[in-house]
Amino acid sequence: MMDESFGTRLRARLDAYGPLCVGIDPSPALLEAWGLDDSPTALERFSRTVVEAVADVAAVVKPQSAFFERWGSRGVAVLERTIADLREAGTLVLLDVKRGDIDSTMAAYAEAYLDRGSPLAADAVTLSPYLGFGSLEAAITSAMANDAGVFVLARTSNPEAAGLQRHVAGQILAEAAAVNAGHSPFGPVGVVMGATLPELEHSLDDLNGPILAPGLGAQGATAADVARLFGPVRHAVVPSVSRAVLADPERVRTRTLAFRDACAEHLSAATAAQK
Ligand SMILES: O=C(O)c1cc(=O)[nH]c(=O)n1[C@@H]1O[C@H](COP(=O)(O)O)[C@@H](O)[C@H]1O
């Protein structure tokens, strides 16, 4: 049994390795760019290569479930092995599944992804709050019981999101902050805020939880954008990148280091400018 909370483990990883989450997104396009066929065996080769390249330099690694699920049970078996490899390497695993459903179904998702006895158990999982933040309760309870965490979509990186999410993001952030109150160094409820946003429309000062910020690289965000948006909460931001580090199997590690160090430098410059 793990006895440190997800927040404590995440804090330690961020302090030791710097601010970056690397996605494992084995899309057909990337498999082709790597000279691999599109098959479960190729998925495994891709995932193993990324794990070996980044497990000891990225604070968090985020396998995207859809790219494994498209191969049915054989793909899910590769996802299970990838999670096991990452956990054995000591990396924090954020499983990107973006789940959200009514209470009883949510409890089953929680059992699948957060219960430490499950073959798919991760350190944290992404959740969608569009059935109401309260519908996520079973997952949040399970996360706490299993020393795991959740990342709830608040303002996502994609351009289509703004019209819908701007109406609800404030409420999601407030509900996450309420769960996180009193926890140290972070509560179990992180949020997702795109690094592509033109500006932050809500303060994150009282969240007391980690902020996953996807959109670096392929979606156009830079380390400077991360610092501009998240400088005031720099200790809590986890910028996330997939395609821009995965494009070339020979350069996954060097690109990971470049993104990580650029984010660290820009965030610390933002700190200095605020003093
Ligand atoms: O939850 C996520 O990880 C996520 C949230 C979000 O707002 N935007 C977003 O792109 N993502 C995921 O982050 C990854 C982005 O990939 P790249 O654009 O290749 O860096 C994909 O796996 C997306 O599913």
From TrEMBL:
Domain Orotidine 5'-phosphate decarboxylase span(s) in chain numbering: 19-258
Lyase is among the record's keywords: yes
Keywords of this entry: Decarboxylase, Lyase, Pyrimidine biosynthesis
Enzyme class: lyase
The EC number(s) this enzyme carries: 4.1.1.23
Enzymatic reactions: orotidine 5'-phosphate + H(+) = UMP + CO2
SUPFAM superfamilies: Ribulose-phoshate binding barrel
Pfam families assigned: OMPdecase
Pathway: Pyrimidine metabolism; UMP biosynthesis via de novo pathway; UMP from orotate: step 2/2
Domain of life from the UniProt record: Bacteria
NCBIfam families noted in UniProt: pyrF_sub2
PANTHER family for the chain: OROTIDINE 5'-PHOSPHATE DECARBOXYLASE
Family: Belongs to the OMP decarboxylase family. Type 2 subfamily.
Name the record gives this protein: Orotidine-5'-phosphate decarboxylase
Species, as recorded: Nonomuraea antimicrobica
Gene, per the UniProt record: pyrF_1
